[in-house]
């Protein structure tokens, strides 16, 4: 199953109150579930010398499933496809945005009379 199929199918189980705007509840759920994942990992290092047992791995798997569910609902409420989310946060996308910014800065510098006088 891909992200789009998951997002569509998980919507059938999305029964939550609308609090002002439909995105609020799933966003709060997303941060809560992500916090639970972080808490379980923290306890692995605090209580278990960094060793992830099969039991802990299964608990993390369940929490990560909850994170995915809330992420899908948040994306749906925002009118976004979860399938497209990885493309907007990929390192290549970030690199392209930074390159475009530096290219724009170079163009501006080339048009700046001060930089032109320095080169002369």
Task: Report what the structure shows.
- By secondary structure, the chain is mostly helical.
- The chain folds into two domains: 3-87, Helix Hairpins (Orthogonal Bundle); 90-120.
- The protein has six helices and no strands.
- It has helices spanning 3-10, 24-47, 54-77, 85-89, 91-111, 113-119.
- It is elongated.
- It starts with a helix and ends with a helix.
- Residues 112-120 have low confidence and may be disordered.
Features:
Helix Hairpins; 120 residues; mainly alpha; 0% strand; 2 domains; disordered C terminus; single chain
List the helices and strands and how they pair.
Blueprint: H1 3-10, H2 24-47, H3 54-77, H4 85-89, H5 91-111, H6 113-119
Short overview:
By secondary structure, this protein is mostly helical. It has helices at 3-10, 24-47, 54-77, 85-89, 91-111, 113-119.
The CATH topology of the largest domain is what?
Answer: Helix Hairpins
Q: What is the helix/strand order?
A: HHHHHH
Number of domain units: 2
- Which class of the largest domain in CATH terms? Mainly Alpha
Biggest sheet statistics:
none
Overall form: elongated
- Quote the average pLDDT: 81
Low-confidence stretches: 112-120
